[in-house]
Amino acid sequence: MEWKKLSKCAAIGGIAMLCAYASADTFIVELDGPSFVYGGLTDMDIDLTIETGDTVRWEWISGFHNVVSGFPGEPGEGTLFNSGSPTGDAGTFFEYTFLDNGTYGYHCEVHETIGMISSVTVIPAPASLIAMSPLGLAMCRRRR
Ligand SMILES: [Cu+2]
Predict the structure, then answer these.
(1) pTM, to two decimals
(2) Is CATH 2.60.40.1190 correct for 26-124?
């Protein structure tokens, strides 16, 4: 493939990736009482599905909490993200942007024994799928 055509394809891919991140959303999960709260549901009842590049923002409303990645006792718990020492300061927030697909557990170390545990499911963002798909490559090849 000629350099000029290759760079054009790279530019198109770059624009598609920018579109993916431009449409990234932030989902707010509240830490209220002894629970994570989202969409009127709490803890493991929460059904939160986001796309790659989206951010979850945990906001402290009431109670003494932290946010730690993984399910309690899971190997590597707290390595993906960790808000640090628990705090009771309302108005505190912690954010994490999910770049890979999968299901991610998280919990509060203060209240894990009473079920302050939840998860988020991350699915591919449509725009980035197009940018990285065989269709995108085929479109580049067709111009050869
Ligand atoms: Cu807590």
Answers:
(1) 0.75
(2) no
